[in-house]
Amino acid sequence: MIQIKEITTLKAYLHSNGLKGTEKGFVPTMGALHTGHISLLNTAKKASGVLVCSIFVNPTQFNDPKDFEKYPVTLEEDIQLVYNAGVDILFLPTTKELYPTGTGKLGQYDLGGLEKILEGQFRPGHFQGVCQVMDRLLATIEPDTLFMGQKDFQQCMVVKKLLAELGSQTTLVTCPTIREKDGLAMSSRNRRLSPAAREKAKGIYETLLFVKSHLVPGTTSHLLSLAEGKLRSAGFRVEYIVLANAASLEIMDHWNGQTELVCLIAAFLDDVRLIDNMILTK
Length: 282
Ligand code: AMP
Hints:
Layout: E1 2-4, H1 7-14, E2 24-29, H2 35-47, E3 50-55, H3 65-70, H4 75-84, E4 89-91, H5 95-98, H6 119-122, H7 126-141, E5 145-149, H8 153-166, E6 171-175, H9 195-200, H10 203-214, E7 218-219, H11 221-233, E8 237-245, E9 254-255, E10 261-269, E11 272-279
Parallel strand pairs: 1-4, 2-3, 2-5, 3-4, 5-6
Antiparallel strand pairs: 7-9, 8-10, 10-11
Helix pairs in contact: 7-8, 10-11
């Protein structure tokens, strides 16, 4: 595995004769790696001739500066994990490298309605930041295939839109959410949960299962208020719990019994914000 910090070095390496024409797979991460990330790397490894992984805690996608400051950094462990997963190139850019003119005045991407709902609504500017970093990473690496997690369902939709807007040749593969034994979706932020909060955190998965098992055609508001009540009594501060069309993310107050739905949740335990989702009708 080679570690590279500069864009020009990475581009030159990827364009070197030995790698020309090799299927390039790419897994972007913010580090503090866990089994969810490793499963993306394992899937990517099987499908790629050369596997690139990036670790970069992207400042422009944090709407809350405290969240950025507290974001866990475990670089030494991460390097060992990506090496074990068979990564060929680990890209470790600095903020200066990706944002040479600073992060202050950046252009805007047209993300349509995706930016105004759910994560877009509760984390203003978050998806603009995601697009800023993805645009730079994609331009540098030009992967054939990009591997991202369903855990960040709306992010996958935003990146798909970005790829379309850029006219990119890159294909996005969405990989399933990897969970702890009790159902909690793995996340770098789980490290910040107190033991008591960690115990409560499985409530999100239990609520998703509750919605899945009680979903019937017709109005969905009653089911969602029951589910929200479950989360609250488990100790969560709920930002949203919704049912949406899994293809368009249009919020669905009524289900026709056929359209594929996704249930999406964002909720806090203490100051740790957790998100999760489940496709209900597969
Ligand atoms: P992050 O480091 O949080 O930016 O995540 C990097 C990638 O890993 C994203 O595509 C995430 O969706 C994905 N990811 C995060 N958690 C999980 C998980 N529990 N299962 C599968 N993929 C995940």
